[in-house]
Amino acid sequence: MKITKIEKQKKNSERYSLYVDDEFWMGVNEAVLVKFALFKAQTVTAKDLNEIAEAEYQHSIYNQAIKYLAHGLKTVKETRDYLTQYLSDRHKEQEEQPHPNEALYIEQAIEKLTEQKYLNDLFYSQSYVRTHANLNQKGPELLRRELQQKGVALHLIEEAMQEYPAELEVENAQALADKYARIKKQYPPKKLIEKTRQMLHNKGYDHDLIQQVIHEVDLSASAERQDDLLTKESEKQLRKWRRKHSGFQLKQKMTESMMRKGFDYDLIKAWMAENEEAFIEE
């Protein structure tokens, strides 16, 4: 057999169409063309063609990874997962069996990309920590969990966390708490503190820092509205529970419900005392 024509493809200048014995055989990347030093009129065997096809398949995996990484930094695990899913989808679409060396070629592509510095889990993690600490105000624990989910080794995560200064952590937590208190001022102070604490926990801040920040939160807006909130909620609960209860049972049900919503026990009792006539059994 003989290569009778090598033609650059019009839609992709890095790919070439190979013709064997005047018939189109397959398209190959320029890197494969160079690797095998292919030229017109070259004599090839079936073994040669098989090796060329194998090299082209291997390079296609590497090339797909390059396209994936062009969209932004990724971890090794994310890249491996992407390539695995990409090939699985392609096999289903083309109704073909997986290539026997597929997993090996994925690992070789990842190894090559790592050597070329396209993949670097430490660099990725450091960038991730800086970005999400400064822009999204995420706490350290949340960042650790997210990086673990992305497959980053624990020792690399801890090294990357050095990009998150303690001063910035306090600043972020305080800013989040203050903003939350302003937005959620419809809650009574006790409930607002509870919800602020939960929000900071979900954001990845530790217990000690949360306690420190909570003491600095401005609850004045919530406190100023507490009387109005208490009256409004008490009247709502009274209408709800009076359908089934009266007297002591009505007070008990209302008190339990109001306390779950964060209202102070003494304030609830004071409101009930001022509105005692509402609890008199008819």
Describe this structure as you would to a colleague.
- The chain is mainly alpha-helical.
- It is 64% helix and 7% strand.
- Helix 8 crosses helix 10 and helix 11 (220-241) runs antiparallel to helix 12 (247-260).
Topology record:
Elements: E1 3-8, E2 15-20, E3 23-29, H1 30-35, H2 46-69, H3 76-94, H4 102-115, H5 121-134, H6 140-149, H7 154-160, H8 166-183, H9 189-202, H10 207-214, H11 220-241, H12 247-260, H13 265-274
Antiparallel strand pairs: 1-2, 2-3
Can you tell me the residue ranges where pLDDT is under 50 for at least 5 consecutive residues? none
What's the CATH architecture name of the largest domain? Answer: Orthogonal Bundle
CATH top level class name of the largest domain: Mainly Alpha
Q: Give the domain tally.
A: 4
What is the helix tally?
A: 13
The CATH topology assignment of the largest domain is: Arc Repressor Mutant, subunit A
Q: Can you say what the CATH homologous superfamily of the largest domain is?
A: Winged helix-like DNA-binding domain superfamily/Winged helix DNA-binding domain
Largest sheet: 3 strands, antiparallel
The dominant shape is: elongated
Strand content: 5-15%
Q: What is the number of strand segments?
A: 3
Cα(first) to Cα(last) distance is 106 Å
- Estimated helix fraction: 55-70%
Radius of gyration, in angstroms, nearest whole number: 33 Å
Mean of the pLDDT scores?
88
Structural class: mainly alpha
| Largest beta sheet: strand ordering | 1-2-3
Q: Give the SSE string.
A: EEEHHHHHHHHHHHHH
